[in-house]
Amino acid sequence: MSTIIAIASGKGGVGKTLVTASLAIALQRRGHSVLAVDADMGLRNLDLMFGMQDDVLYDIGDVIKGRCRAGEAVMTVAGKLDFLAASQKHTWEKIDAPTYHYIVETLSKDYDYTLIDCPPGRGRAYKDATAIADRIFFVVEPTWSSMRDAARVMQFCNKRKRFNYDVLFNNFYSGVPGYVPVQDMLQILNPETVAGILPHDPAVHLAAHEGCLLHAAETPFMKALAQTAAYVEGGAAPDIGSLTALLPTVEGAGAEEKESLPVADEEEKESLGCMKALAVAELQKAAAILNGTAAEPEEEPEEDAADEDMPRRPKGLSLRRRRDQSAAWRHYRR
Hints:
Layout: E1 3-8, H1 16-29, E2 34-38, H2 46-49, H3 60-65, H4 70-73, E3 74-78, E4 81-84, H5 97-108, E5 113-117, H6 124-130, E6 135-140, H7 144-159, E7 165-172, H8 182-189, E8 194-199, H9 202-209, H10 220-232, H11 240-245, H12 255-260, H13 266-290, H14 319-333
Helix pairs in contact: 1-10, 7-13
């Protein structure tokens, strides 16, 4: 049976689509059969990464509406790598979620891995896209806003007993002004599991822009992603030290890239310090709520009332035990 992995984030524009396509290619290169599913209804972009924007005849919206069979909407990118496009006409408000879940789960039986490129945030679209996922990777870029939004989504998962998530850092530098260092991210966000640390790589971004990501060379980005692919296969957690060594520095950047790198003046440094303080305060508040030492804020209107009775994160349980409980809960929901 296929392992379904949802690639999500709290904030948009952090590289979910690039990570989804790249991870699918990395798993395919390791001999696995992979189905890449675009679940960003109305705003699909995964087809651009594969260079198949002109080849999409049917999408998952057509399958749900009964205009075609599921197999007719699946396109072959390369050997053992297939792609299912999201609807460009309909948003999630017009998509029947149970039918979507049934189609993806049925198709997934023929693959080793199914990767879902999810919409950002934690609204209904996110919940519908990740409902059938066995694991969730939250993509975080080196900005305080991305970190804070990711922390909010992680808190959202903990509250609903979904502990099957990992953090995947993307587009990171080492010692470049204007970007949050990965060490600060690890210390403040404090994730239990890290699926990988992906460096900024102009070659990969160029390949994605040109739609030839399938033929990307073994750049530092792809080397770092190989550890994530091994982790997905059930291997050991990625080595933080070796991944940090792959991060680009100002000294290692080319002449053109150096000109594009920001140089923070005193005013910008003070502004970044304020943003860091606000992000840290937000995370401390969220941690206090999860630990039961602070009052929980009132439920927001967009969240389901049925979730109010969901128990909080169990205390004193190992990560493996919590993931087993989460898997049992998902099978019960199915």
